[in-house]
């Protein structure tokens, strides 16, 4: 016996004074309603109604039960209404997980725009460069740079990640332009220390059809991508930066892309989430909003024409 359902039918029958009306009100047959109430009475070992051919009236035990379950049924009904409204209204809590490396430059402006458009959504955004998943983060939507998330989530590619070797005009004027990968050994370079391992990430280059990794001696390293970018813009060293960090500086003339014929583009930025049919409207709306703002947005990667005109772009190694 489904006790919650039986108690709900009992309460409606008590309110309407008629079991048939209670059956119509709850969308079941009169026989099913009658059976549910009789099963409830049998389970409790008491009669809940005085029955006549015309009406029902509560016994003393029925009155006590109705008074006891009334507040709980009211709370249950309100909770169910809230759940239904979450499918219809862009409102309620929304938890987002993303790497800090993507936060300030790529995601945050669009997230703030979404928050302004939908003030009834309570955003809870967690930026963390350690690899996580929706379950461990208790998140509704996640973002990731690199490879797509593992099984258990739907992943949609938003943007390519180009790894761009670049330097400031002031650095190049002082130290010269490296024309080959090997010439980087004679230059000051930055390094990025990965959050998961604490190790410095190797630089990677496309040589022919293969991706080759090189350990670069760093004169300055950081575990924060924005800090590394600031160091390169300041003219302290050459860096290999993600396109989402470098592109605005390149277009403003603060950075110059180098060795672009060896630039790799093997990874991407993804948005990931559970099945859309399981999501309330606020989550689906956020996903659609972020996809519309970011998918293939050239504000975050260099176009082919920009790469062709970079210093030494057509030179062989």
UniProtKB/TrEMBL annotation:
Residues that span the membrane, as ranges: none
NADP in keyword set: no
Residues covered by the HTH lysR-type domain: 1-59
Molecular functions (GO terms): DNA binding; DNA-binding transcription factor activity
Keyword Transcription: yes
Pfam family, one: HTH_1
Keywords noted in UniProt: DNA-binding, Transcription, Transcription regulation
Domain of life the protein comes from: Bacteria
PANTHER family the UniProt entry points to: HTH-TYPE TRANSCRIPTIONAL ACTIVATOR TTDR-RELATED, HTH-TYPE TRANSCRIPTIONAL REGULATOR
Family according to the record: Belongs to the LysR transcriptional regulatory family.
Name listed for the protein in its UniProt record: LysR family transcriptional regulator
């Amino acid at each position: 016996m489904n006790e919650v359902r039986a108690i709900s039918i009992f309460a409606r029958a008590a309110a309407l004074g008629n079991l048939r009306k209670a059956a119509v009100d709850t969308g079941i047959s009169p026989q099913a309603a009658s059976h549910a109430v009789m099963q409830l009475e049998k389970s409790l070992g008491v009669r809940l109604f005085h029955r006549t051919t015309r009406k029902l009236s509560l016994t003393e035990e029925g009155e006590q039960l109705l008074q006891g379950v009334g507040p709980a049924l009211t709370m249950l009904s309100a909770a169910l209404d809230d759940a239904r409204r979450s499918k219809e209204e862009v409102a309620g809590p929304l938890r987002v997980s993303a790497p800090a490396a993507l936060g300030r430059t790529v995601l945050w402006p669009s997230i703030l725009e979404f928050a302004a458009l939908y003030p009834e959504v309570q955003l809870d955004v967690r930026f963390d460069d350690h690899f996580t998943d929706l379950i461990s983060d208790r998140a509704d939507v996640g973002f990731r740079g690199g490879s797509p998330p593992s099984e258990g989530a739907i992943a949609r590619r938003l943007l390519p990640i180009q790894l761009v070797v670049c330097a400031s005009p002031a650095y190049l004027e002082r130290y010269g332009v490296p024309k080959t990968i090997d010439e980087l050994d004679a230059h000051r370079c930055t390094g990025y220390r990965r959050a998961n391992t604490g190790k410095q990430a190797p630089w990677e280059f496309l040589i022919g059809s293969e991706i080759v990794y090189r350990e670069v001696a760093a004169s300055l390293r950081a575990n924060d991508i924005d800090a590394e970018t600031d160091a390169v813009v300041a003219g302290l060293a050459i860096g290999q930066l993600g396109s989402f960090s470098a592109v605005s500086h390149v277009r403003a003339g603060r950075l110059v892309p180098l060795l672009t014929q060896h630039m790799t583009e093997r990874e991407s930025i993804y948005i990931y989430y559970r099945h859309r049919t399981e999501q309330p409207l606020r989550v689906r709306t956020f996903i659609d909003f972020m996809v519309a703002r970011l998918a293939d947005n050239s504000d975050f990667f260099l176009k082919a024409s920009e790469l062709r005109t970079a210093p030494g772009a057509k030179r062989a190694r």
